[in-house]
Design a protein that fits this description.
The chain is of the alpha+beta class and 413 residues long. 51% of the residues lie in helices and 12% in strands. It contains 17 helices and 14 strands. Strand 8 and strand 9 form a beta hairpin. Bound molecules: protoporphyrin IX containing FE.
Length: 413
């Protein structure tokens, strides 16, 4: 091994700014798998091994209920398997992968919200697109899709719940404690809504969950609350971070921004390439179900594995010139990347492949369309933001001074 991977991984886990692409490259070249004592498990670096851990259910599976973010959300879709997973996943897909809703009310709501957020931007000077756009947009859309957007202290409770999720790798008890208080408040808000939606269902996800049946029985109130809490974490931070990373890259490459302004048909490819290049979820954890070998290493039942999806996305065995951001990489095949046939690993793989990828894509398209219409360019006037975080990683802010397109500029914005 040319570098001490375990020691460098220690620093990676702190989420501090560093060149992770370089670390991933060195790790992939050095070994398919290495051990990290502070993660207390194995770290898998190469594309095909990552994919195997996510798909070979005889030997690998999600961490058991009671570990990871299920401590906060309770038992949700990520802990399910087999027929239960298939049927309950299909219930979520009825709202989240429904083209009638996606191209209808969901897009309409997203566009209206994106416009109203844009209208709040300062007329002149810098704007933090993260706090004013990329965070509130998916937060508004996801909670509207579930119909829980009017919960009291919604924003601060959301912040507390996601802080205790995937990013809290070391399980800081104070963070968990705050999340449990927030979750309790959110659940108290959802409980009467469940009762109401059971008797008077609408087109929202909460209604779908309330009326759905599994093995002849309706989902329990507990289960519905867990699904809502999980979806809030799964749907917002991911989309927010994907958008922020892509915008950061595009603002730093004004020629690419201009290309996209001129040719909007490249937007889906740009989004898919952004997800490959800087995925919001760098890694997911799994447990070993039965003794096996991976990457030439024996692993034993009960051990933990973290799969570096962000490293797999840069594996030259699969992606040509992986360290180049190629806006045309997925031209004509971009839709594939949001489906079960995806080549990128950013939405996971196998059974637990992201259910919300189409919703996320629609939100990102709508955001980009507005910003491409309105901004001729945008400059980081308070320094280029660092990428921070691990497992979830993205720029810490997006403070830019935009040069506005003439039509809006002359109407006051
Ligand atoms: C760009 C945005 C997104 C990214 C990169 C992303 C990424 C992921 C990843 C990596 C997983 C797999 C986790 C694992 O295997 O442990 C996942 C699962 C999931 N995501 Fe997303 N996600 C995004 C947006 C969304 C949205 C908007 C929603 C819904 C509102 C959503 C709902 C889900 C659900 C329900 C699962 C669990 C699927 C299952 O277990 O069958 N995601 N997502």
């Amino acid at each position: 091994m040319t570098i001490n991977l375990a020691a460098t991984f220690e620093r990676v886990m702190t989420g501090q700014p560093m060149d992770l692409a370089a670390f991933y490259r060195e790790a992939r070249e050095a070994t398919p798998i290495f051990r990290s004592e502070s993660f207390n498990g194995w770290v898998v670096t190469r594309y095909h091994d990552v994919k195997r851990v996510l798909t070979d259910e005889q030997y690998f599976g999600p961490l058991t209920y009671g570990a990871g973010s299920s401590i906060i959300h309770g038992r949700s879709i990520l802990q399910m398997e087999g027929d239960e997973h298939r049927r309950k996943g299909a219930i979520l897909a009825r709202t989240l992968r429904n083209s009638r809703l996606l191209d209808g009310v969901q897009r309409k709501y997203t566009r209206t919200l994106a416009n109203s957020l844009f209208d709040k931007f300062p007329i002149e000077g810098p704007v933090d697109l993260k706090s004013m756009f990329t965070t509130p947009l998916p937060l508004g859309v996801t909670s509207w899709v579930m119909d829980i957007h009017e919960a009291p202290n919604f924003r601060s409770n959301y912040d507390a719940i996601v802080a205790a999720g995937a990013s809290n790798l070391r399980g800081d008890p104070a963070v968990v404690e705050r999340a449990i208080v927030a979750k309790t408040e959110l659940f108290a808000f959802i409980t009467p809504l469940i009762k109401q939606r059971r008797s008077d269902p609408k087109d929202d996800l909460l209604s779908t969950l309330c009326s759905a049946e599994y093995e002849g029985e309706r989902l329990s109130d507990d289960e519905i609350r867990s699904f809502c809490s999980f979806l809030l974490a799964a749907g917002v931070e991911t989309t927010d971070r994907s958008l922020s990373s892509l915008l950061k890259y595009l603002f730093l490459q004004p020629d690419l921004w201009q290309r996209l302004r001129a040719d909007r048909s490249l937007i889906p490819s740009a989004i898919a390439e952004g997800l490959r290049w800087a995925p919001p979820v760098h890694a997911v954890s799994r447990g070993v179900r039965a003794d096996t070998e991976i990457g030439g290493q024996s692993v034993r039942e009960g051990e933990r594995i973290v799969t570096l999806m962000a490293s797999g996305n840069r594996d030259p065995d699969v992606f040509a010139n992986p360290d180049v951001f190629d806006i045309e990489r997925f031209k004509d095949v971009a839709d594939r990347e949001f489906s079960v046939k995806a080549t990128i690993l950013s939405f996971g793989y196998g059974r637990h492949l992201c259910t919300g990828s189409l919703l996320a894509k629609m939100e990102m398209v709508e955001c980009l369309e507005i910003l491409l219409d309105e901004f001729v360019s945008a400059e980081f006037t308070q320094g280029i933001p660092d990428d921070v975080g691990f497992v979830l990683r993205s720029p810490e802010h997006l403070i830019v001074t935009p040069r506005k397109a003439l039509a809006r500029a002359s109407s006051g914005h």
